[in-house]
Amino acid sequence: MAYGDFAWRTSRLWLSPLTYLLTRARVYGRERMPLEGGCVLAINHLAWVDIPVVGAQSPRNINYVTKMEMGEVLGFGSFLRWHGIILIRRGESDREAVRAMLDYARAGRAIGVFVEGTRQKETRRPGQVQPGAAMVAIQADVPVVPIAVYGTQFWKPGNFAPCSIAFGEPFRLEGLPRGGKGYREGSLEIERRINVLFDWLAGVHARGRPRDETPPL
């Protein structure tokens, strides 16, 4: 399996400093990220810049899940594939992509899932969580790490709007059954935790983003 670790090591040399420079990215609760073992990173999605902001702040390499169309963009698609992304056909059953997500999680990888399935450009806040993240966490028996992104909804090239992310405590969807009911219940819990972190980040930004703040659980 192509995990993309070499590509991540190479890109961190230039992409991470560039991301810090352009977004003034700040992270809260990074120590909560499990440093080994499979996990699902459940991330809200506001803008395309969420991808490098979270990637630059993560202490681990991430195997992002993204729509198939991104992998077909000339040049850029190859760059993404090099970084070990998992391509999925959005809006339809994609057993191959689901199998890849499960294989990666069971192999100890951090799977990055933008849980709404698309950017929330109109509401500018987290939307309804789709069942994919919960499904992988339940079937692979790995923890979920909720991650909220804030500020990217205001960011545009050149305006340098500050962006922040907050890591929640990893948690397991224990006791939930495999199947639609369990995935729906798990998704509601993921959604609740992301919203708590997002609203907390909004308050942190209103206070000028002090550094010594601890996100809620």
What can you tell me about this protein's structure?
It is a single chain. By secondary structure, this protein is of the alpha/beta class. It has one domain. Helices cover 39% and strands 15% of the residues. The chain has a 7-stranded mixed β-sheet with strand order 1-7-6-2-5-3-4, with helices on both faces. Helix 2 packs across helix 3, helix 6 crosses helix 7 and helix 7 packs across helix 8. It is globular. The mean pLDDT is 91.
At a glance:
By secondary structure, the protein is of the alpha/beta class. The chain has helices at about 5-10, 15-25, 50-55, 70, 75-80, 95-105, 130-140, 180-205, and strands at about 25-30, 40-45, 65, 85-90, 110-115, 145-150, 165.
